[in-house]
Amino acid sequence: MSARDWIDKDFYRELGVSSSATDDELKKAYRKLARELHPDANPGNAEAEARFKAVSEAYGVLGDPEKRKQYDEARRLFGTGGLRGFGGGGGGNFDMGDLFGNANQAGGGFSGLGDILGGLFGRRGQGTAAGRPRRGADVETEVRIDFLEAVKGATVPLRLSSPSTCGTCAGSGARPGTSPRTCPTCNGAGLINRSQGAFAFSEPCRDCRGTGRIVDDPCPECGGDGVSTKSRTLTVRIPPGVEDDQKIRLAEQGEPGQNGGHAGDLYVRVHVTPHAVFGRSSNDITITVPVTFQELALGSTLTVPTLDGKVTLRVAPGTANGRVFRVRGKGVVKREGATGDLLVTVQAAVPAKLNAEAKAALEAYAQATAGEDPRPELTALLNQRTG
């Protein structure tokens, strides 16, 4: 891709966001589009696949703070036919065609503009070779597991459709049995220098597209790019105690590197489906157990479920509604050895309807305890204000 191709592309429009979008807004827009356009969701849809690649390319630039800064600066300078006032003769306009023109001229040094273009294409300055290894981009995906899998840990398959090193040419871009040759135009540097009046500029070599290599016989699978989109299945180990919205890093499972560089990382964002009975607070497991009034007032023995069995809990007479009991060691056991507890909250269950016998019993109880005030502090405060 030439510098003009890069600058002419509106990556913000591809993601449907404004140029002032925050990192979180960019990420949210990318995830939404990636899910909608993913090849697995649109089998055989060439248009959706092309849009998926375009969206991935856009986020590959805008999702990297340094690349986004360089992209924004380049579009600010070039996007509206900038650089006015440079060149010869009384402040005439600088012709963008001259910067990306046909003639390749040698020039001394690099300007700041050349550094910007070089940065977009992974090079900074004249001394950096085009063939320098470059690390691949990081990739993020999502997986949903149930509550018990999050607590105990699980192994889940993860199917991805993403760019990967071409298996036919091993990433060289050349048909098997052939090899790329050094670009004669830039002598393998990937950049050419040219002068415009008193200024010197560098730009990616148009013959080799800034790679420093020419592929005469492209690989039939990847078309000379060295990268092809493939579907692959990974086995992901979810560690015990993972929390909702937590990320798991899989080293070098992201996009492939270039020129022998390391692959990027794959980040798996985990979503945990809530449990119908159990909850969680850090490493502790929580549960609310309904009890009757008489169980709290007279005392009782409760059988409470745990993640791996059951425990017996003694409720003393006169236990307050909402009291929390702690059962040691029955919470989340994390990989590093930390163990949480089971927190049991007793909650009085109030019957919606009473039969005649139960109603009579409660009325008798109310008469027997008529002299007792369950809220003496409130009564005292009310008496002070009305006295």
TrEMBL record:
- Explain how, and how many, cofactor molecules are bound: Binds 2 Zn(2+) ions per monomer.
Keyword check for Signal: no
| One Pfam family named in its UniProt record | DnaJ_C
Instruction: Using the UniProt record, give the first listed, main subcellular location.
Output: cytoplasm
Please state every residue range assigned to the domain named J.
10-75
Q: Which cofactors are named for this entry?
A: Zn(2+)
Zn finger (CR-type) location:
153-231
| Location(s) in or outside the cell | Cytoplasm
Residues reported to bind Zn(2+) 1: C166, C169, C219, C222
Q: Does the keyword Cell wall biogenesis/degradation apply?
A: no
Kindly list the biological process annotations in GO that this record carries: DNA replication; protein refolding; response to heat
- One Gene Ontology CC term in the entry: cytoplasm
User: According to the record, where are the CXXCXGXG motif repeats?
Assistant: 166-173, 183-190, 205-212, 219-226
Domain CR-type: residue ranges: 153-231
Q: Which InterPro entries does its entry note? A: DnaJ (IPR012724), DnaJ_C (IPR002939), DnaJ_domain (IPR001623), HSP40/DnaJ_pept-bd (IPR008971), HSP_DnaJ_Cys-rich_dom (IPR001305), HSP_DnaJ_Cys-rich_dom_sf (IPR036410), J_dom_sf (IPR036869)
As given in the record, the signal peptide range reads none
Question: Could you describe the subunit structure of this protein?
Answer: Homodimer.
- What family classification does the UniProt entry report for this protein? Belongs to the DnaJ family.
Spell out the HAMAP family in the cross-references.
Answer: DnaJ (MF_01152)
Let me see what the UniProt entry remarks about domains: The J domain is necessary and sufficient to stimulate DnaK ATPase activity. Zinc center 1 plays an important role in the autonomous, DnaK-independent chaperone activity of DnaJ. Zinc center 2 is essential for interaction with DnaK and for DnaJ activity.
Among PANTHER family, the record links this protein to: CHAPERONE PROTEIN DNAJ 1, DNAJ HOMOLOG 1, MITOCHONDRIAL-RELATED
Its annotated function is as follows: Participates actively in the response to hyperosmotic and heat shock by preventing the aggregation of stress-denatured proteins and by disaggregating proteins, also in an autonomous, DnaK-independent fashion. Unfolded proteins bind initially to DnaJ; upon interaction with the DnaJ-bound protein, DnaK hydrolyzes its bound ATP, resulting in the formation of a stable complex. GrpE releases ADP from DnaK; ATP binding to DnaK triggers the release of the substrate protein, thus completing the reaction cycle.
Q: What is this protein called?
A: Chaperone protein DnaJ
